[in-house]
Amino acid sequence: MTGPMDDNTQAQRAFRAALGSFATGVTIATTLDKAGEPVGVTASSFNSVSLDPPLVLWSLAKDSFSRPAFAQSGHFAVHVLAASQEDLSNRFARSGEDKFAGVEWSEGRLGSPVLARYAALFECRTRHQYEGGDHIIMVGEVVDFEARDEAPLLFHGGRYAEHRPRPGGEARASVDLEHGRFSDDFLFQLISRAHYRTSRPTRRKLAELDLTMSDYMVLAVLSMDAPLGGEAIAARLSHTGRAPDASALADMVEAGLLVRRDDGYDLGDEGRSRFLEALAVGKAFEADLADHFSEAELAAAKGVLRRIIDLTDDDRTGAGR
Ligand SMILES: Cc1cc2nc3c(=O)[nH]c(=O)nc-3n(C[C@H](O)[C@H](O)[C@H](O)COP(=O)(O)O)c2cc1C
Predict the structure, then answer these.
(1) Does ligand 1 have an atom closer than 6 angstroms to the CB of 85?
(2) Which of 24, 30, 42 best tests ligand 1's pocket when mutated (most atoms within 8 Å of CB)?
């Protein structure tokens, strides 16, 4: 037989589980304590209340360490977390720790700490605090907000989750052949814009290093496989439209970028060091960009791109992809 206390615990567990079937985003609410120190908690109880005036709410456990700070400060900021911010969510869900150590933040419009990264931000003046059982319901008037185009972190059934749009939901046609237009939903246009933008830091670095894109590609091919003859290099780069001819290779030898051996071309010391400098810029940019995505998103994106490359295999030269 279970006693009333057990019943209660079981009932609470079932209640909690039933509430968990309501999928939410995840936020971090921040404010300052009396000493001016930053305070923050992870909260999934965030919701909209009113458009005019603009009001939002979230509820804070009465026994939380941060409660006195939120109760007296008169302001708070709510950060809607991006899919890649699970670690930050966990950090701010640990009671009382120095949650801000090593976290980048600045003072917001009303004084609340504003984290550097978020999917959306709502800076609020505290308007009401309502009793809500073992929680306090905080209602804030939004004085400033910002939404960034990032996939959100979700919470459902007691676990983190990710947003996956349902197929067929696209409102716009990606290509309008009748009028000769395409929208920003056209996959090829997206790939080419993404390529243009992601290669920009490298292109800038190449200009600084006095290398052309063709030079860079030759250096990249030889960094993977050398020595190679002129024809082999050209074959590996034929799909790029930037295959070097004999005179381009001779210029690279002249500049110390390549060395000519009996069995083909190899990287010269100058070529190797400039190639590594340019490569480092691309790698650093990729690492910064990757911070904005979850592991699952990155794996999915790479999978799609690899499949596109495989499916468009026809005009492949067999190497140098
Ligand atoms: C996904 C998630 C959602 C949460 N939502 C809330 C919430 O809405 N309100 C709340 O008071 N605590 C919530 N918590 C728990 C607090 O983040 C946690 O109790 C935190 O340690 C409180 O910090 P403090 O005691 O330092 O103030 C949530 C935790 C997680 C992981």
Answers:
(1) no
(2) 42
In this prediction, residue 76 carries a pLDDT of: 98
User: How high is the mean pLDDT in each 10-residue block of the chain (321 residues)?
Assistant: 57 93 97 96 97 96 97 98 95 90 95 96 98 97 93 94 75 61 73 89 93 94 94 90 91 95 94 96 94 89 90 59 44
| 158-165 long-range contacts, CB within 8 A, separation 24+ | 158/17, 158/20, 160/26, 160/86, 160/89, 161/23, 162/83, 162/294, 162/296, 162/297, 163/83
Whether 45 is in the pocket of ligand 1, judged by its Cβ within 6 Å, is yes
With a 6 Å cutoff on the Cβ, whether 161 touches ligand 1 is: no
* Strand partners for 261: 264
SS3 content of the chain, % helix, strand, coil (to 5): 40, 25, 35
Question: Where would I find the H helices in the chain?
Answer: 4-19, 67-73, 86-92, 187-198, 200-208, 213-224, 230-236, 246-254, 269-290, 295-311
Q: Is 36 in the pocket of ligand 1 (CB under 6 A)?
A: no
- Supply 226's token pair: 């050398």
Instruction: For ligand 1, atom 18, name the residue with the nearest CA.
Output: 93
pLDDT for 7 equals 59
Tokens of 48: 């909209």
Closest atom of ligand 1 to 160 CA is 1
Distance 41 CA to ligand 1 centre (A): 6
Q: Quick one: pLDDT at residue 184?
A: 61
Domains of the chain in start order, with CATH, are 14-162 (2.30.110.10), 187-315 (1.10.10.10)
Give the number of the atom of ligand 1 that is nearest the alpha carbon of residue 92: 17
The pLDDT score that the predictor gives to residue 3 is 42
